[in-house]
Amino acid sequence: MTSVSPGGVTTSAVIVWRWLTSRTRCLRTLGRTTSRDADSEHEFWTRSRQATPSPRAGVSQMVDYATGEPPRVAVEHPVEMSVEARPCTAEDIERLRTGDLRPLDLRHHQERWASQQRGEAVYLLAWRGAEVFGRVTLLLRSKYEEVRQTIQDATEMNALEARPQGEGIGTALIQAAELEAARRGASTIGLAVEVQNDGARRLYERLGYTHWGHGRVVDRWMQRNDHGDVVIEHADECFYLTKRLGSSAAAAV
Fold it and tell me: Per the structure, how many domains does the chain have?
């Protein structure tokens, strides 16, 4: 039975009107939410490379920088993404030159590539797909005079960098440098690590590196800005670590 309100409007009509009003508000809210999420997805895709994937999860634990919350859609990837560490090629340099790199990073690549072209070093890059996630330079002769006088055929790792850390990229680069040094007939590989850098030193020690036993070395290098201007001249006191390249490394080449 339909009742009539004092104003002459039936109760059923009021109920229908209220239902339609509620549905319209709901749809408008959904419309705003969809638009916001679309913007969030755009922000996620354009800025997600700044986030660090979790190595223990099958889904990247990324945060939408627009809202500070996890994005609505996450990108799944294998727990262990394969890393290929290998010497740089002319094709690699061209790909890096045409990519979206900071001028300082591009200059570093070009300078290290030039040293490889002169026969002074081997420039190793760590690739995941089409992107570089790390680099190291294998010097065919040590940059330190005291090391050259003590170890005649020592090769040396320099400027190791892995982004992000903790995912095996640095280890892959170190192993690739060791194999390359062994392939070239070196009996020893060395490196300098800053006295304060306990984490890096522990990593090298786990990989078989030990103190060389002839005191510390001073690593002198110049820090430049994106324009190539020297902003700081460093003189860092370092431990010097070495590792003998045995038959296992040579056999793996």
Answer: 2
